[in-house]
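This section describes the prediction task in plain terms. A model, or a person checking by hand, is given the sequence of a single protein chain and must write out its three-dimensional structure as a string of tokens. No templates, partner chains or ligands are provided. The sample shown here is typical of the held-out split.
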Amino acid sequence: MHGKIVSYQSATGRGVIITVSKTLFEFNKKTWHDKRMIPTVGMYVEFRGESKYVSDAHASKFQVFDERTVITENDFWYTEDDEELETLEEKLRFAHIQKIFSSTNYTTIEEIQSVLSVADATKNYFFAENTAVEATDNLAHDDHMIVLNYIQLRRFITKALDSLLFSDKTIARDKFSEYLGILTRLENSYETMLKYQKINIENVFEDTFLKFQFHYQAFIASIQSHKEKLNLLKRQQQGFKNDVRIFLGRIETNRGDIEKNKEKLKKAQDSLSNIVIEYEKVEENLNRLENIKKDFYQKHFNAFSVVFQSTFNRFFKKIKEGLDHCGSLLDDQIWRLSANSTALKNYHFKNGAEENFCAINFALQYLSRLNKNMLHANDQELYTYCEKIQKATRKYMLIVSSNIELTTEIKVHALVRSKYLVVKHAPKMINLQSLLRDFSFGSIHVDQDVEWASTEDIIKEIESFSNNANAIIHQVSVQDALKGIRKG
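The expected answer:
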């Protein structure tokens, strides 16, 4: 059936479609089967449904109805599906071209009228990409957010999400549905646009621009008519030439009535002369029409190529930016939920985990298992990218304590505030010395109740390492941890 979306909630993936009979059908993200198009209010759709529930829905191929289209919105409503509407469109298009052909004088015409601009044709072609990009307009914007390269990190974003859902059963995948839905559409558009890089631009030009230039199509019909006329005249010319030879032969050999043969010869010669004149006129007009057609094609093809490439570049950039933006928001959402997860606090962070759940950290874990001297091209590119992100964002914090509860509380509070923070733990002096030697810490939290050394001795030990001379030292207790560690 044909219908139009009258309401849609991106957060829940639920919407309502209305039909020509004003019947309302409900659909959800499971019954929306169009990977390239995001449902939006006002979108025309093709769907199957019963009992007011949709079983399958996707965007219709027909979204624009105006003075430039042969079909109307009324035609959309009163056809059952896109296949029926396409058949009607083709029939109406042919009739419209025939009408133009019949009412145009092709012996005096000097130019071909254009009914669809190059810009509109290109816009129609990239309709799905434009819809996907528009879905990113309402995404949150945070100037302080580190924007990730989604294509580089998508498998690790997926890994972080799957690990979170596996570790904390109280978090449902639906919580991420808005971002996942947008990413799916953007990824499909991205993959499609990669294919566009190898597309035959002439085929696109003919299918999206010339096909809807009705005056041009009528012009093509006229050229074909001229060619058929020339073929007919050529056959007639050959026939009259044969007649001339026959009558000349009869006259030269005195066969038959000489006067009648001369009369027939004269008539055949006159007809041949008229045919030659007419042939030359038709041929001259055909050449003129071919030149007009060639000029129209070349002028608009050149413009289309420029606009198409410009539009392609613009959408490709926007889709890539949309993927990076939405992927980064998803990764941030995974981080915040994981850092605030009670399940992860009691298991993951309490058992020594030092980092947040986020794509970069999962990518670094993957890279840590590889031989850095034998990385293939993709992993080398990933390694270089992660190293760059690390240098720009990664910071280290140290907790000096033998108390697991205290360490966990400080760690969780810190990781909630800083996505790329790494929290190291020194339960003994030997661990402390090793960590101070290997890392430069931005802040160090020292348990006032540590048993193996006094707070003063620990601070002196910290200050003896030049690479940690600027570290901010906090003296904390279990009570501090329970109240929430102060920022610093």
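For orientation: Strands lie at 2-9, 14-18, 24-27, 44-50, 53-59, 395-400, 421-426, 443-447, 472-476.
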